[in-house]
Design a protein that fits this description.
single chain; alpha/beta; 3 domains; elongated
Length: about 300
């Protein structure tokens, strides 16, 4: 092989290697830029959640320049489009584990038991529809659901139905461009097959919408029923709420004990309420006590005593 030919081959190989490295650099840089942008978006969403928790409002998040984005929620963190994980700290977020949409719907409600326990954050999208069956069992629950601003229309895509109409639901899927549907069954019934992601949640009501069973788990109050309907990580957040209730019970029990020691008014008997403020990791066990705790605390206020919470 002539020296000139060898030089040309060497130049071609070297050029190919340099070009490959340059292309790889561009790809890595674009991936890094996208990851950074998605992480920044997740941070902004987290900031919105903090703001909503303060103002107790509903909101829509529709990032500029994004037709679709994928948000993944876990027990302790969430991410957008594969960006860095944003830890949710002490937030209680009820949401599907994965939402691919152009718009997130958010709402915050307070959870009392009977004292303030936490702000509950609910997240879904217009592309996910929830069918509640049968309608007659959920009319009170429908009244609880949030409405759009200055409208009587519901914020979330939730519909109560009298029967499962395969034809109607197929029309809904097409017309509303649904990506996921979820049937929340308060009575057993057969669910047809559909060509999109379909979930089923069976609910057994015990005390109306205030208490019931969900598979091997349970819900207390309508706030947690909505949480169970939305969330794929419901048990994780239920544990967080239960632990917080147990902790707060102990805090208020200690306060009631101190008030009892300092109390000189025979009308202010704090011993009863301390017996109700049990330390338990079972909300079902504490459910019956919450009304008693509320009434005793109300009595303290009416009698001019220092209230416990």
């Amino acid at each position: 092989m002539k020296k000139a030919q060898f030089n040309w081959i060497f130049i071609l190989i070297a050029g190919f290697i340099i070009l490959a490295l340059f292309v790889a650099f561009i790809v890595d840089y674009r991936n890094l830029s996208f990851r950074k942008m998605n992480t920044q978006l997740a941070v902004e969403v987290d900031s919105q959640l903090d703001l909503l928790s303060i103002e107790k409002l509903s909101a829509k998040i529709n990032p500029t320049g994004m037709d679709q984005f994928k948000t993944e929620f876990f027990c302790n963190y969430f991410s957008i489009n594969g960006g860095d994980q944003i830890y949710i700290r002490d937030k209680i977020i009820f949401s599907p584990s994965s939402i691919e949409t152009s718009e997130l719907l958010l709402w915050v409600d307070e959870f009392y038991f009977p004292y303030k326990v936490a702000d509950l954050i609910y997240i879904s999208s217009p592309n996910i529809k929830y069918y509640l069956y049968p309608k007659e069992k959920v009319e009170e629950f429908l009244e609880y659901l949030p409405k759009k601003f200055n409208s009587n229309n519901q914020l979330f895509n939730i519909e109560a139905i009298d029967y499962i109409s395969e034809e109607k639901i197929k029309q809904d899927i097409s017309r509303e461009r649904l990506k996921e549907i979820k049937f929340v069954l308060f009575e057993n019934t057969k669910i047809p097959r559909f060509n999109i992601k379909t979930k089923i949640l069976n609910v057994n009501l015990i005390d109306g919408i205030e208490k019931g069973k969900i598979g091997s788990s349970y819900f207390i109050k309508k706030q947690l029923l909505l949480g169970a309907i939305f969330s794929d990580n419901y048990n994780c957040f239920l544990d967080k709420i239960t632990n917080k209730v147990s902790l707060l019970n102990q805090v208020y029990k200690e306060k009631a004990t101190k008030l009892h020691i300092k109390n000189n008014n025979p009308e202010c008997n704090y011993q009863t309420i301390t017996s109700y403020l049990k330390k338990s990791v079972d909300l079902e066990e504490l459910y019956d006590n919450q009304e008693r705790i509320f009434q005793k605390n109300k009595e303290f206020f009416m009698k001019g005593c220092s209230d416990v919470f």
